[in-house]
Amino acid sequence: MISPTAAATATATTTSLATVFNTQRMRKFSFGCPQLHPTTSPWMLRQQHTPTLMAASGTSLHSKTTSSWEDRISVHGLSESVVGVLGGGLLGRMLCQAASQMAIKVIILDPMENCPASTLSYYHMVGSYDDSATVQEFAKRCGVLTVEIEHVDADTLEKLEQQGVDCQPKASTIKIIEDKYLQKVHFYQHAIPLPEFMQSKRLAYDGRGNAVARTEEDLSSAVSALGGCDRGLYAEKWTPFVKELSVIVARGRDNTVLCYIQLLKLFTGPNSLFTWGNICHVVKSPANVSWEIMKLATDVARRAVVSLDGAGVFAVELFLTADCQVVG
Q: Is the peptide bond before 286 cis (omega within 30 degrees of 0)?
């Protein structure tokens, strides 16, 4: 499974950092980046009924301050140095850290006023990243628009692309990533090996949006646990696995693809040493697997990313089975 991940490492290609993004299960992942000092700017953007600048004291700033902000952050097309990120979570924070070392300004759109990326971003607009009007207003200030979470309004990104906005990865890729059934179909068509289990088409990750039915009698309760068929579900055969791996894949605008370290993910759940709900508990790097498994996993991850459109850094999550098969 793939996740666009704005967990841009400082080693991810410098020529394409501005196009980093986040792919889902591919679920989100994290690892250490050097700590940078937060911005000392006293201003931040906050969303009221429409995007409006607010001073640190809470005083609303209108035309004069807005003009000053526009002077500093160029309108789309005039500067490639401003990266707009939909989402301000941990992955967005790490992107800000890496971008700062390259003198790249990162502005974020996130509904949480104190989201993890807010202290390191050049500016933070407080607003919903799945609200079309807010995203379109935000995009006016970006040389390139990317995401650190896949649960965004892909239709709006598609409209922005038609208007000439540089969205990375492409809206078509976000649509595939955010809908797990479309993701399965897409990778099946590109001969990517897949596991088999039941989960929600959308919003399924890290123990959420999926359920196991071990018998026919369990099907009804599994469907109910996932919110019913109206949400859109698909069912597959359970695939026993012994380890879950993540491969970090960076893809540049020139379609250059580089694979980075493999991570071993340890989950809580019925088949683990822990007792609660299939949530990632520990991430180890590098993964303790053989060279042959590492090569196989890297090949699967590379092919998965090559099949998608757009540049960015992807976390490709894979299952390793007892018979040494790697499936996505």
A: yes
Domain with 165 in it: 30-170
In angstroms, the CA 55 to CA 65 distance is 9
Amino acid letter, 168: Q
What is the maximum span of the chain, computed from C-alpha positions, in angstroms? 66
In a domain, 136, yes or no: yes
**DSSP annotation of 94:** H
pLDDT in tens, 239-297: 778 888 889 999 998 899 999 877 776 654 444 433 345 567 777 888 888 999 999 99
Query: Is the pTM here over 0.90, yes or no?
Result: no
119: Cβ–Cβ under 8 A, 6 or more apart, which residues?
38, 39
CA angle 76–258–159, rounded 5-degree value: 30
Domain termination residue (choose one: 238, 270, 292): 238
How many domains does the structure of the chain reveal? 2
Residues 89 and 50 occupy one common structural domain: yes
Residue 323: count other Cβ atoms within 10 Å of its Cβ: 7
Using CA atoms, how far apart are residues 156 and 90, in angstroms rounded to an integer? 24
